[in-house]
Write a structure and sequence with these properties.
The chain is of the alpha+beta class. The protein is 38% helix and 21% strand. The two termini are 23 Å apart. The protein binds zinc ion.
């Protein structure tokens, strides 16, 4: 999800790396057990603990973040890196280069999700994976997604420098197209990994705003696909034992409260809707009020109904937004003959969210009838289930933060990231 660079994102990002380094450095038996159990990072065989080299190369990491930011179609400090463009291909090459330098086994699936694997001493066990994305919406910041990929690679590098051998294999994943910029599909790579058949079907025919198909765009980036290859991206459920994603907060809470670490306990479930009304239109002067069926007013009324139904849920966790409201023909002296709304509704409780959607549907039908406009479309574009973080992973992160005396806050992620789809498809 898009975000501008800010102080909070840097804070969260640096603090996370400290957690990794000090958690492994701590020789407290309980901390060691916890981290070994959940992260698969056993201490070295001689039991001497980590060497003095065991620290994050924060300067090197910052340099990598800046280098990656230079692969951009807009001038610094902004970053624009859209799926399968030249800059995206350069960024992919850069990430694979680091993975190779670290001695990871690099693999790409059919749509370009990139995996760097460090084989553990018990490779039959499910791997622990971590990662995020490096595509960037136009004029975004340099940390969004990137910290979750380069941060993970630095963590691997750190463990390698310290001569650890993981029991479980560790994998860094760079997901394809977390941002919906080009094809209007967010978390495209991880969604497909989650085995969502409707997505595999729609990728066969989707085009961007230049009328370039997904398959042609992928081919131009070096991913020549046969249609059946899309199914090969689907994950097998026993492949991973855990997935962790480091991401900037993209909300104001941590920065406002001065807390460096947020531990995500649940990811709110997003749903998006498209609604169209159609009326007769007409001249703003010639058609008198009783004779009108104004599609614009129907949309306005529905926008207010969305707010009302969201507030009626009684939970602070229910949110709804009409982010797009378009009127046709869009002239001051013309009664709107068509209106188009796009609505985003989220909650950590799937039933509560779906109840809101049902009320929005009823309101749309009611408004259509009252105003004599046609409800020409009411379409649920996606209706993803929410995800809960596994308690054992949350406990491990909390434990590590406590060991380090770092302030943290358990919180709900109201933006969603690739983790939502890893939760759905990998376990
Ligand atoms: Zn992101």
């Amino acid at each position: 999800m898009p975000s501008k660079p800010n102080a909070a994102s840097r804070l969260v990002f640096l603090a996370f790396l400290l957690v990794i380094s000090a958690a492994a450095a701590n020789d407290d038996a309980a901390a060691r057990r916890t981290m070994e159990q959940f992260a698969g990072f056993p201490a070295s065989d001689d039991g001497e603990g980590p060497s003095s080299d065991f620290h994050v190369d924060s300067e090197g990491l910052q340099r990598q973040i800046d280098e990656l930011a230079s692969f951009s179609d807009s001038p610094a400090p902004s970053v624009t890196r859209v799926l399968y463009t030249d800059k995206d291909v350069q960024a992919r090459r850069y990430i694979k280069g680091i993975m190779n330098q670290l001695g990871l086994v690099v693999r790409e699936d059919a749509v370009g999700n990139i995996f760097g694997r460090w084989e553990g001493s018990e490779p039959g066990l499910g791997a622990v994976a971590t990662g995020s994305h490096v595509d960037a919406i136009p004029f975004s910041g340099k940390f969004d997604g990137v910290v979750g990929v380069l941060g993970a690679l630095e963590a691997i590098s750190l463990l390698k420098r310290s001569a650890f051998l993981p029991k479980r294999s560790l994998e860094v994943i760079m997901f394809t197209s977390e941002e919906p910029t080009r094809f209007g599909i967010s978390c495209l790579g991880s969604r497909l990994m989650a085995g969502i058949e409707e997505l595999a079907q729609s990728l066969r025919k989707v085009v961007d705003n230049q009328n370039v198909s997904f398959l042609d765009a992928a081919e131009s980036a070096g991913y020549k696909l046969n249609l059946e290859d899309l199914h090969s991206v689907f994950l097998k459920t026993d492949k991973y034992s855990a997935f962790i994603e480091l991401h900037i907060e993209q909300g104001p809470i941590l920065e406002k409260e001065g807390i460096p670490i947020g531990i995500v306990t649940a990811i709110a479930a997003p749903a998006s809707l498209k609604v169209d009304f159609e009326g007769n239109g007409g001249h703003a002067g010639a058609v008198l009020m009783p004779a009108r069926n104004d599609a614009g007013l129907a949309a306005a009324e529905l926008a207010l109904a969305v707010e009302k139904h969201v507030l009626e849920s009684g939970s602070i966790d229910t949110v709804g937004t009409v982010g797009i409201l378009q009127l046709h023909p869009g002239a001051i002296n013309s009664i709107p003959s068509k209106s188009h709304l796009e609505i985003d509704v989220r909650d950590i409780d799937e039933k509560r969210r779906n109840d809101v959607i049902e009320k929005i549907r009823q309101s749309a039908a009611h408004i259509s009838k009252n105003r004599g406009v046609e409800l020409s479309e009411f379409k649920i574009i996606n209706q993803d289930p929410p995800a809960l973080s596994d308690k054992s992973v949350v406990d491990a992160m909390e434990f590590a933060a406590k060991q380090l005396n770092l302030a943290y806050k358990k919180m709900i992620s109201r933006a969603y990231h690739d983790s939502l789809f890893m939760a759905r498809g990998a376990f």
